[in-house]
Amino acid sequence: MPTSFDRDAMLAALESEQNALTALLPRFSDAQWRDASRADGWTAQDIASHVADSIYGLARLTLGEMEPMLPADPATGWMDASDYNEQRRQQNRTLPREKLASRMAAAFGTARRAIETVPDPEAAGPYGPQHTKAQWLQRIIDHAREHRTELEELLG
């Protein structure tokens, strides 16, 4: 994780991920959207919904607009979201693609606002001093990139 905060570089990286995902998701046929899956059974739709949820949630946590509600992993300092992610996966299973596209755009907008306005990027993040707000913002981009790569692999 970087320790210096370059707002412009982070905004450019976020925009790059948004553009890549916006171009990638329509390439899935309806069958691929529902059926293409990772080894753990998460479909392309599940992964895309998770990306929108996580971008939005991480940005709001970093802005202080939400209080941490999930336990922290003491070894990493990041939140342990496994159970929550599975709950959200089940809730989002029937989400229409158009609604997901709208959520994705709104999530990226929230992340952009967080990067543009976070007052003290080197301050402790939402789960304490182990990770700064800047590191949480970088995590948004890294997480989106990781899952975009998975989605690309599902397309083959």
Main beta-sheet strand count, sense and barrel state:
2 strands, antiparallel
What is the terminal-to-terminal distance?
29 Å
Name the poorly predicted regions: none
Order of the strands making up the biggest sheet = 1-2
Number of helices: 6
- β-strand amount: under 5%
**CATH secondary-structure class:** Mainly Alpha
Fold-level CATH name: Four Helix Bundle (Hemerythrin (Met), subunit A)
Question: What is the number of E strands?
Answer: 2
CATH superfamily: dinb family like domain
Helical percentage: 55-70%
| Cα radius of gyration in angstroms | 15 Å
Mean pLDDT: 94
Number of domains: 1
Which architecture name does CATH use? Up-down Bundle
Shape: globular
Order of helices and strands: HHHHHEEH
Domain Mycothiol-dependent maleylpyruvate isomerase metal-binding: 16-140
InterPro entries: DinB/YfiT-like, MDMPI_metal-binding
Protein name: Mycothiol-dependent maleylpyruvate isomerase metal-binding domain-containing protein
Pfam families: MDMPI_N (PF11716)
Task: Please characterize this protein's 3D structure.
It comes from Kouleothrix aurantiaca. Residues 16-140 form the Mycothiol-dependent maleylpyruvate isomerase metal-binding domain. This is Mycothiol-dependent maleylpyruvate isomerase metal-binding domain-containing protein. A hairpin with a 2-residue loop joins strand 1 and strand 2. A two-stranded antiparallel ribbon has the order 1-2. The mean pLDDT is 94. The protein has 156 residues and is mainly alpha-helical. The protein has one domain (7-155): dinb family like domain (Four Helix Bundle (Hemerythrin (Met), subunit A), Up-down Bundle). The protein has helices at residues 7-24, 30-35, 44-63, 82-91, 97-117, 133-155; strands spanning 124-125, 128-132. It has six helices and two strands.
